[in-house]
Amino acid sequence: MAELDCITFLSHGTLESRDLEKTRAFYEQCLGMQTIRTSPVSLMIRLGGNNTIAVVQNPRKAEMPLLNHNGLDVPNREDVDRCHRVLEEGKEKWGIQKITRPADQHGTYSFYFSDLDGNWWEILTNPPGGYAWMFSQGGDLQAWGAGKDDKVNPNAFKGRGKS
Question: Which residues pair with 50 in a beta bridge?
């Protein structure tokens, strides 16, 4: 049992924004997120569940490292490709700073993009509930047969150079 066994929910994370109004428009109109203004310098966002992200205004915000990205799930590879096209075509409109090509990587098909605030996002194939399916397998990776010749492949991962 954990020492802090009274903790019951991972409720939120935090992102920074240089311009909350532009950021809010991007989150709502492009990404389809729900937003609520929580103060003159903050808003709360969510999409598809109860976990939320607080977005706090910081005009001097630094660029987020790619490894600290947030994931946005879609049901299939075609949706990854469609999202990539929409963001490529809307780079100027939405202030997209960088965008990678879709690829099979780390067990899924995905791409990354850096938004108008320098926050990194990944759009990826995932089953409903995202990576939560891993917890239903019980144990760590080796315990449920995922790996080089894995039989566990809910994200339609094809591997590099495989069709």
Answer: none
**Mean pLDDT over residues 86-98, rounded?**
98
What pLDDT score does 152 carry?
Answer: 58
| Nearest partner of 99 among 53, 39, 30, judged by Cα | 30
Could you say which of 1.10.150.170, 2.40.30.90, 3.10.180.10, 3.60.10.10 is the CATH number of the domain covering 63-146? 3.10.180.10
What is the 3-state composition of the chain as percent helix, strand, coil, each rounded to the nearest 5? 25, 30, 45
21 phi and psi, to 5 degrees?
Answer: -65, -45
- Cα–Cα distances in angstroms (integers) from residue 74 to residues 14, 126, 128, in the given order: 22, 6, 9
Name every residue whose Cβ is closer than 8 Å to that of residue 68 and which is 6 or more positions away in sequence: 120
Fold that domain 8-59 belongs to in CATH: 2,3-Dihydroxybiphenyl 1,2-Dioxygenase; domain 1 (3.10.180)
- Quick check: 26 and 119 in contact, CB under 8 A? no
User: What are the tokens at 8?
Assistant: 């019951």
pLDDT at 106: 82
SS3 assignment, position 28: helix
Query: What is the DSSP secondary structure assignment for residue 4, as one 8-state letter?
Result: T
